[in-house]
């Protein structure tokens, strides 16, 4: 088998619609009035990437500092999209305590894939956050 075959397969999968998550492209994160959004959290993810980034959503503006998430959002987010040139720092406990992780610009359809210590992951584990776009 030629060493070129795996590369061609990867390119073909990237070009096929529906292979990537149904999450928005980070550059498309904007409010209805056209202003910039730093990040967007979603309460649904799925083993099938096409079904991720669904359900309720929480948009976070640049410079938002939330030591306590709004009612109904504590330990709920399971998908995340971060706008270009932005990053979001999340904590596992309210008041910016516990485990922490920084997510840079990109799409994170399944937070289950990101480890939080030895036994946990970041799905349904975000209790506080800080989002910035320098």
Report on the architecture of this protein.
The protein contains 1 helix and 8 strands, in the order αββββββββ. It is mostly beta strands and 134 residues long. The chain is globular. The model is unreliable at 4-21 (pLDDT under 50).
Question: What is this structure, in a nutshell?
Answer:
This protein has one helix at residues 4-15; strands spanning 39-44, 54-60, 65-66, 79-93, 97-108, 115-116, 120-121, 128-132.
Tally the beta strands.
8
Supply the number of helical segments.
Answer: 1
CATH domain topology: Gamma-B Crystallin, domain 1
CA(first)-CA(last) distance: 47 Å
The shape is: globular
Task: Please name the CATH architecture.
Answer: Sandwich
Largest β-sheet summary: 6 strands, antiparallel
InterPro entries: Syncollin (IPR028137)
Protein name: Syncollin
Function: Functions in exocytosis in pancreatic acinar cells regulating the fusion of zymogen granules with each other. May have a pore-forming activity on membranes and regulate exocytosis in other exocrine tissues.
Membrane topology: Peripheral membrane protein
């Amino acid at each position: 088998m030629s060493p070129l075959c795996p590369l061609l397969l990867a390119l073909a999968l990237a070009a096929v619609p529906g292979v990537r998550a149904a999450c928005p492209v980070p550059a498309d994160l904007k409010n209805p009035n056209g202003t910039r959004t730093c990040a967007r959290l979603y309460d649904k993810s799925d083993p099938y990437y096409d079904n991720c980034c669904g359900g309720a959503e929480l948009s976070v503006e640049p410079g938002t500092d939330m030591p306590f998430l709004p009612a109904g959002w504590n330990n709920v987010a399971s998908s995340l999209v971060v706008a270009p040139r932005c990053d979001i720092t999340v904590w596992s406990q309210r008041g910016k305590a516990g485990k922490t992780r920084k997510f840079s610009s990109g799409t994170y359809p399944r937070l289950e894939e990101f480890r939080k210590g030895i036994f946990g992951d970041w799905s349904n584990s975000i209790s506080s956050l800080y989002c910035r776009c320098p």
